[in-house]
Amino acid sequence: MLKLFKPSTYSFLPWFYTPEVHGHPPAVLLHLTHEPPQPDDEEEQQQSNTNSSIEGLGTESNPFIVYRNKEDASDIGNKKHKLRKLRFVCMSDTHNQIHKLIIPHGDVFLHCGDAVKHRTSARDLITFNTFVGTLPHKHKIFISGNHCTCIDPNHPERTQQILSNLVYLQDSSVDIDGVKIYGSPWRPKRGYVYRAEAFGYDASRIQIDKWSHLPSDVDILMTHGPPYSIRDFNPSSGKRVGCPGLLEEIITRVKPSISIFGHMHDCHGASLYRSADNENLMQFYQDKHKNTATTAVATTSTYTTNDETEILFLNAAMVGGHHLLRNPIVFDFYY
């Protein structure tokens, strides 16, 4: 059996089987909104003072401005009016409270899963679909989350029938006016004690089985779970819960303009990844593949630090601690 991670990468607690990452460096990020909680020993690593082409605050009145081609950002006066634009309104983890949100208008509504509660998910999903049908957005897209226990992963077409007011993505993509959006609901699975565990996947297999198949021509990537070290910290356990295989595929091969997720309620907000700030992380991946047998991932990934890649990461979880509800994240995509 092919395994991408050595035993030292993941450890498992008896009966809980909760994946825990060891020995993997975190990404260096520029936090565009409030800094998320993180391990104390990573505070100095999680900093970046570099300038970026991303503008705005992610609000309706001051949305993030993202360009498919970075060169367009340097000549705004001459090019911006010639580019096409779509406004995206993003959220995740609304857990039956979406009706309490003030949802900005836009062209595309994106929801990254956990619209429901797992005990009543079958009923809740119908209610969610009805509510979304009242929204004015022309395009509405949804992926599943771990609370969507009523969804059969083997028959996504049945879920699409229920979600008549949205496009349901499960390891699939949709093209909206020339912008490619790909959605995948999987995340490393936890133990049997967790009841809200839809779309949990074997942590040692998830990269080769799922993430290595992410297309490399994606503009916007939607997942439910976060990549490792990207707004993925769990203050209760003191651990990061993001997927290292997802991080590797995103920054070395897929390189979308925007990666959106939820799942971690305490880490809402936006962070920017720049390849120029992450030479140590890229070297880690190079060394990893030098010391392992050739795999499908190793042959398709490209490890370069001179391409000036920028990726906007958004944790769009709406529900926070103490019944806090956050505002949806808004960005304008120019292309």
Question: Could you characterize what this model shows?
Answer:
This protein is α/β, with parallel strands linked by helices and 335 residues long. It has a single domain, classed as Purple Acid Phosphatase, chain A, domain 2 (4-Layer Sandwich), CATH 3.60.21.10. Helices cover 18% and strands 22% of the residues. It has 8 helices and 19 strands. The chain has helices at 70-73, 76-79, 121-132, 156-162, 206-209, 244-254, 279-290, 296-300; strands at residues 10-11, 20-21, 29-31, 64-67, 85-91, 108-111, 139-142, 167-168, 172-176, 179-184, 187-188, 200-201, 220-223, 233-234, 239-240, 258-261, 269-274, 310-315, 329-334. The strands form 5 sheets. Strands 3-17-18-16-13-10-9 form a 7-stranded mixed β-sheet, with no helix packed on it. Strands 4-19-5-6-7-8 form a 6-stranded mixed β-sheet. β6, α3 and β7 (139-142) form a beta-alpha-beta unit. The protein is globular and about 50 Å long.
List the keywords.
Purple Acid Phosphatase, chain A, domain 2, about 20% helix, about 20% strand, 7-stranded mixed beta sheet, UPF0046_metallophosphoest, globular, alpha/beta, about 325 residues, Calcineurin-like_PHP, 8 helices, hydrolase activity, disordered N terminus
